[in-house]
Structure formats: structure tokens, C-alpha cells
Amino acid sequence: MTDATLAELAEAAGVAPRWRDVHGAWHTVAPATLRVVLGALGLPAGTETAARDSWASLRHGSGRLPPLVTARVGQPTRVAVAFGRYELRLEDGSVQDGMLGDTGGMAELPAITQPGYHRLTVGAQQVTLAVAPARCLSVRDIAPGRRLWGLAVQLYALRRHGDGGLGDFGSLQDLVGPAARQGAAAIAISPVHAQFSADPDRFSPYSPSSRMQLNVLHTRLDLPGDETADLVDWPAAGRARLAALRRLFDAADAATLVQLAAFRAREGDTLETHARFEALHAHLFGADPGLWHWRNWPEQFRDPANPAVAAFAREHADAVRLHAFMQFAADRSLGDAQRAARDAGMPIGLIADLAVGADSGGSHCWSRQSETLLGLSIGAPPDLLSISGQNWGLAAFNPRGLVQNGFGAYIELLRSAMRHAGGVRIDHALGLARLWVVPDGASASDGAYIAFPTEDLLRLIALESSRHKAVVLGEDLGTIPDGFQDRMRDAGVMGMRVLWFERSPDHGFTAPSTWSAGAAAMTSTHDLATVAGWWSGHDLEWRSRLNLLGDEANKARIWAERGRDRGMLWSAFHASGAAAGGQPEPWDAVPAVDAAIRHTAASDCEFVILPIEDALGLAEQPNLPGTLDEHPNWRRRLPGMAADLLHAPEVAARLDALNATGLSA
Prior knowledge:
By secondary structure, this protein is of the alpha/beta class.
């Protein structure tokens, strides 16, 4: 097969054979990379015969009706079915029928006015028709005529007496009442996806085992531990909490066991496969550290449908039931926190964080292999932040697998995220359009972009947003595909307007009045410097200490740029009315923190999210990208108990500044 023919096959499959960098230069993807990516998509191209078969598969698939088709309320829907009579059974049980129209060789179904998952039958063919509203639920829908604000919190960082050294849903309950009384409409929390119970040393919230289950370590538990420590000791806290959950399980009364049985029945196979994975992982990895990844397990256990897995579950029924119980306890605890937020008066309540992918060795990839890109990791191509590119070590959905399986795993994911939340933040929302994927063992620069069915995904997001009454934010930071932000806006997915990135062509900071109205404004994010850390240069001190700034000449250039940026930022604060007087010294960050909050609150954005680190004026950031153990990522705890964090006069004054700009619950 020639390279040109291979590139044609890749393009037809949604794999870009070329990509453009941040400087506008085009790069050609290596043929070897294209073959690996195509293979992961289920389209092998290693030989001429394999490539011909893949071409045939693409052509045949394009003429076959998928299990699910998305549509928009009030618009005719085109479907690849034979022309003739149709029957449409709506979710409410009513039935519509008629004749399909002909539009350019495609059958056209008349506009449907009722959102939902309906069943379309044409002859012997059946398909689920997911009819979405025009847009997601918006802040304007929740609070007409008002702008709202919320706090962003790293859940593990919260403290309460008896938390055993780790923030949990109980700590969150302690925070929501005071936050609501100060005017907060929401609390955006760090991801609470399931981790690996058999390996508490792994704890990054953005590298979970499953995004459809919960991190059971965040269940509200009362147990001894050092709640005064500045850093979370995840392994110690994790083992203590798992032991406490085991004790609760062993002591469960009859009523609790009945509730557990009902929970398992309701959650079905999704919960069951996760519980089986957890039990298998503990059994195999516990006996042999080389069996951490399920692809290294004995062959009979690598497929959840293998009878050997069911046999193991029967033989270890108590272990499987324990892991189901832990999910039950975590689910109930998270639900309590959301109810507390709404009862306190928050119109949104919790905003869940949906990580962009999952660890390939986890339960999600094990249980959803046909819908996962195995053998590829997602990341980013070389850019201004990383000249070598980034490999995040995460597996993502297989776009072809999603379509072929009726988007089942994606719908499950959205429902899981929204079940106990009034909103969801989609991490790296650019993945709704395309993802940079890197073959296992390759450098981050030797990757390729793969396309995703954006329109289908946005429609499903809007449909689930409407059904769950949840607002949706999308992290639209990075190298953004042309037109993508417009598509997000049209679908009602709020983008993110972060102070540090709102710059003009001359690198000055833009007026907040120019920020997108349909987005969420924020001073910073968990991956970026806090305002105090940026103003003081504390973030640069960290990076310099870890040799992340290059040689001495580059360090000097970066420090000089920060000095110029301080001046431009203070000028922008003056222009927006957020600050007055002379520019503070770098060591005097408090005026800059106060001004940054007022400046961000003055934006035209309908929603403002303030990281609690900025509300408290802290210099340390939760995560320093590009580091692992060198920086205490995902371990820092906040000063003071969650119930008291917002009481300090300077903190209350910052939150009052948000309310003074018309932002309130």
C-alpha cells in the first residue's frame, strides 16, 4: 500500500494524515503511526489485504443503520433506511406513523417536538432516535435575568474533624451551607471517579479506573486520623477508609442489605462488572504485582464476558458484594451532599468534573473494550506549553465503537456525572471534536488527531442536560479546532474564560466586558498558578527549582516577561475599575488577588467560578503539569475546617465583591 493510499484510508476513517501546529506549520503523520491508529479503530492496515478489508468495512458500515441516531427537536431527521411506512414509539408510549420522505437519497422523518429516546421502526429495521433540545440547560434557564457564581474546590483538600486525613463528601456538606449563605450558586468539585481499591498509591483524580463509578474513599466516614496535616497521605488514608468501609459492610443490618440489593438491581451490569473487576484486581494484583494491568491477567479473565469471570464472581461473592456496597455507600453520600447544597438554597448545587479519559488498566477499559481505544494514549501535540508534546497516559473512547454500540457507554457516562449534580464540567472538551492520540511506546510528538462525531455527542449532552436539569461547562483551552467554540456555544455548552488567557494580540489583558457572555469566567484553574502565586512569582520559583524553565538565559527571559505581564495586568485592572493606585510589589499579592476577583466578576459572562485558593488568597496551586512526585500534586489541604473557611473577613469581602457585581444565588 502506498503512503498516499494509506493517507486516504486514514482520512476516510477520521484520522488526520496531517496536522497544523500552533505556529501554522503543517506536519505529516508517519505511516507507521497511521497504521497503529487505524488498527486501534478496528481498521487494520498493516498489509494490502487488511487495508482492502478495512476499506470494505468502511463502505459497508456507511450503508448500515447504527443502533442509535441523534436528532434535534423541531427539525426533520434523515436516516439511512428504506423508504416506506414508519412507526415511531415515543417515550411517553404514544405512537406516530406515516410515510418517510425522500431527500437526496436519504429517508426523511418529519420533525419531532418531544425530546427523548424514541423507537423508530421501518420495515424490519429498528433504531433508537435520540431527540435532543436545541441547547443544554443554561444559567439563564435556572435564574432568569441573573448572573451566578460558584466556588471551585479540590474535594480531597477539605477538612473536617474526624475525616481521617482526607476530604470527603461529609467535608463538602460542611462547606455548602456557608457558601450558599455567602451567595454561591454552585460548588464545582474535582473528579470523584473510581480509583483502584487494591492500589491506594494511585490517586490522581484525572487518571481513574472508571469514570462511571465513584471514588469510594470520598464516602463520608468518621474515623481517626491527622486532619491537621498539610498534605494528604493517600495510601494511609485510603487503607484506613477501605478498612472502615469493610467494617460497615460486615455490620450492615437487614434494611441496609435490602437497599444494597435494590441498588445493585438498578445499576445492573455497569456496577456488576466494576465490582467484579475490583475483586479480580485485588485477587490477582495482590498475589503478583506484575498483574496490575488486566491485559497481563490470565487469558480467561481478560474478557468480562468469559464464563471464568462469572465463576470467579460466584466463588468470591462476598468480595464482589463488598465492592458493590462501597459504591452504594459512596453514591448515597454524594447524593446527601447535593441535597444539602440545594436545601441550602443553591440553584445549581454541585458541579461534577468529568475527566477526559481513564487509565487503560482500569475497570472501564476492561468492561468496554469495543468502545475504547486500546493501545493508544491521549495527549497533546507539541505546542507553546510543551515543545515535545504531552502524553497523558489515558485511554479514550473509540469513536467508531461508540457509533457501533449506540453510544451506550457515553450516555452512561453522562448520566453518572449528572446523577447527583446540578452541572458538569467536561475536561478537555476539545475531545468532543478531536483527540491527539499517541501509540503506546511512541513519543508524544509521534501522534495523530482522530475525529469524533461532534454533532451526535453535543446532542446527547443537551438531551441529558435537559433530563437531569444540569448546566454544562466545557474546558475549551488549548489548540482549538476551527469553529468548535461556535458549535459549543450553539449547543449551550459554556466555555471557560480564564484570566491568564484573555489576552489581546499585543499580549495585553483584555477588558472583561469583551469576554464571551455564554461562558464561565474564572481567575484560574487547578492546573495554573493561583493569583497570589502568579503575582509573587511563586509558580516560577517552583518550576525553576524543578528545572522546568530551561537554561539561565531562558529563566531570565521568563522572569522578565512576568514583570512586564504584572504591569499589563495591573493596567487592565485599572481600566476595568477593579483597582486603583500604584502597582503593588510582587511580595504584596493581596491587592492583586482582590483586584483579579473584581475584574473577573465584571466580565460579561453569565457565570463566574472562583477557585477557593483565590478566595483564600493562597499561593500554592493544586497541580503543576509536567510533574509527578516532584510537586505535591492533588495532595494539598486547605487551611482550616470546611465549615469555617469562608468566615475570615478578607474572604467574606472577596465574595461580597462577587455579589456586588450582580452575581448571586
